[in-house]
Amino acid sequence: VSAGNGCGHTLLTPHSGTLSSKNYPGTYPNHTMCCWRLQAPPGTSLLLAFGDVDLEPSEHCAHSSLLLTDPQTGIAYGPYCRNSVPSAPLLVTNSSTVTVLFNSTSHRSGRGLLVSYATSQHPGTHYTQEHISPDPPLTMCFSVYCPAGCKDIHGDIWGNPSQGYRDTSVLCKAAVHAGVIADELGGQVTLSREKGITLYESTFANGLRSKRGSLSEKRLVFHKVCCLLSPACDDVLEVVTFSASSWWHEVDVLGQDRAWEAERAALSTTGHSWAAEPSAEAAWLELDLGTRRNVTGIITKGSSEQHDYYVTSYRVSSSRDGKNWRPYRGSSGQEDKVFEGNADSQGEVSNTFIPPIVARYIR
Q1: Alpha helices in 51-207 (DSSP H)
Q2: Which residues form the F5/8 type C domain (predicted)?
Q3: The whole model's pTM is what?
Q4: How far apart are CA 77 and CA 89, in angstroms?
Q5: Same structural domain for residues 109 and 35?
Q6: Which residues are bridge partners to 327 per DSSP?
């Protein structure tokens, strides 16, 4: 839990999380405080990674400070500020509960703080590839644990899942974009550092927009665990039948008929696509995969440049028998997940199902 007027981006889960001061990495405001209470499962201990602690210096950090306490033992860590920084980027505690207290008085400078944590079950918390090795070889495979909350931390990513990411990208943010972890849970990621490429193309995927990037010496390539077991896990699934709640029978300005039928919803279709009747509410498109399949994600695209229509957001439901439907709620499991769709009619947008859907029918 967190409380106070000085809290910035915060996502706390029992196994990992991310917290930052208000406005980070901009200057934190005067006369604010935030208190985060971190609670890990019984039998585990907390590991805290200091991504950045930049609080204006003062004697004994009296003006702005970061203080961590273990309420079970009374042990305190800090106070920390710019002239009294943590001695190591990783703090290993022996407690499952830690209180993190940040406060500020009047000051002029300072980015504030960025801290992540994980439990002793998941050591190795990272934000950027610089934390992995100061001088890695050209090709190098490694595994790191990314905490929950990486999606909204400061920093850019260049590239996409198919070609990889420029090695200056924020590693765990790129992992969310690639769909190998869910931001609300975090998780272990496996990747390799390989030879760079001339150009990294921008894409929108899993709620994140990557940037178009230039030549780099190295790049980061993420590997999905399922692909290590089954090379076909990223294959495009064949749809046996498309059906829909309705379809648009258009008569254009020249009096010509155009049928926006469900069968035109396939991603490879040229020209116009499927569209529901314009007056329809709660429209849906249904895909019959022929048999029960493991569905790991979805790609959507607009109707084409000529017909400038696209879906901006949607929900997903699945069924094994075509009668009983289950809404997709993602890794949090609390409410139906709303996926971000397209912002234009040309680009493709990917969204990953974590966990995957096992079903024959998808709506």
Answers
A1: 171-178
A2: 227-363
A3: 0.85
A4: 13
A5: yes
A6: 317
